[in-house]
Design brief:
Blueprint (H helix, E strand, L loop, with lengths): L10 H9 L2 H12 L2 E2 H7 L5 H13 L3 E6 L5 E6 L1 H34 L2
Antiparallel strand pairs: 1-3, 2-3
Length: about 120
């Protein structure tokens, strides 16, 4: 089957829309380092609400990028880890992170130049 992301009914378009989300990229990059519990993810991804984190984790699990393991502890704890597919995608997310950190001064400079030209 061939996919065309520019066609409105293509499933790869929905995937692209879902992945073009900052929280998804942050979750993938955070899990790249180690398996984590929900509260650890919430703590490490500053600014994400519990509701959004839960929604994004369910989406990533459904799409096969993360696994969810319930531990037989008191209280019950859940661990999240990248699957092989998730590890591959996390490498791409990491490249976005590196690019953003390396080029942010250029972007900020361009924004400033643009804003000054509009005055």
């Amino acid at each position: 089957m061939k996919f065309n992301i520019y066609h409105p009914d293509c499933p790869s378009r929905l995937f692209f829309e879902n992945m073009a989300d900052k929280w998804i990229l942050f979750i993938l990059d955070t899990l790249k380092h180690e398996t984590q519990h929900f509260n650890s993810l919430k703590k490490n991804i500053i600014g994400i609400s519990p509701k959004v984190l839960s929604q994004k984790l369910k989406m990533l699990e459904r799409d096969g990028f993360i696994s969810r393991t319930m531990l037989d502890t008191r209280p019950i704890r859940v661990e999240y880890a990248l699957t092989l597919l998730g590890e591959e995608l996390a490498q791409t997310a990491f490249q976005f992170k590196l690019w953003a950190e390396s080029n942010m001064l250029k972007v900020l400079d361009a924004q400033q130049r643009y804003d000054q030209s509009m005055q």
